[in-house]
């Protein structure tokens, strides 16, 4: 008799790196929930947790030789959620002085970001003068840009809110450009994430 689990090959074949990527769905959903409940700092903190899971899956995959085409597809899907969908939803609620322009920015971030992810899955990295670079701006830059805009808006006033759609529209076009941009190491991103976490916690509990 055929076991039910034999029909779940898609799940059985997933490795620890794949599951680490998918666990990121939990903080991603939490980030959306906190936007819905008007908790911007908690939303951004949940997004940073999702970023940590997204970054660790690649580390695990490379360390244990688990890299695969399927894993790259999962990673791209999670990138679209964490770095495109969530930031777009966030700016529409918390950084939206110009509804039409901010809406256009959100559409471009998601649309152009998806195009950029598809291109990367097909083309991969580009090499210039021996240096490995992304073709165009990486989608992961959108999220920290939104955090900076939110913190700037909190401390320095609404000018950062007004800047938001213009900054993100510019970044959207940069994502689909051919400009080679170096991939920062996690040794850069993690200290930045810690600074963001401490700043957001200070805003939350001051």
Give a short overview:
The chain has 206 residues and is mostly helical.
Tell me what you see in this structure.
- There is one protein chain.
- This protein is mainly alpha-helical.
- The chain has nine helices and three strands.
- It has a three-stranded antiparallel β-sheet with strand order 1-2-3.
- α2 (16-23) runs antiparallel to α4 (40-63) and α7 packs antiparallel against α8 (159-175).
The neighbouring-strand order within the major sheet is: 1-2-3
Helix content: over 70%
The radius of gyration is 18 Å
Largest sheet descriptor? 3 strands, antiparallel
Structural class: mainly alpha
Provide mean pLDDT, rounded.
Answer: 92
The ordered H/E elements are HHHHHHEEHHEH
Sheet-strand content, in percent, reads 5-15%
Write the layout of secondary structure elements.
Elements: H1 9-12, H2 16-23, H3 25-36, H4 40-63, H5 69-94, H6 99-123, E1 126-128, E2 131-135, H7 142-156, H8 159-175, E3 180-182, H9 186-205
Antiparallel strand pairs: 1-2, 2-3
Helix pairs in contact: 2-4, 2-5, 3-4, 3-5, 4-5, 4-9, 5-6, 5-7, 6-8, 7-8, 7-9
Features of the shown structure:
single chain, globular, mainly alpha, 9 helices
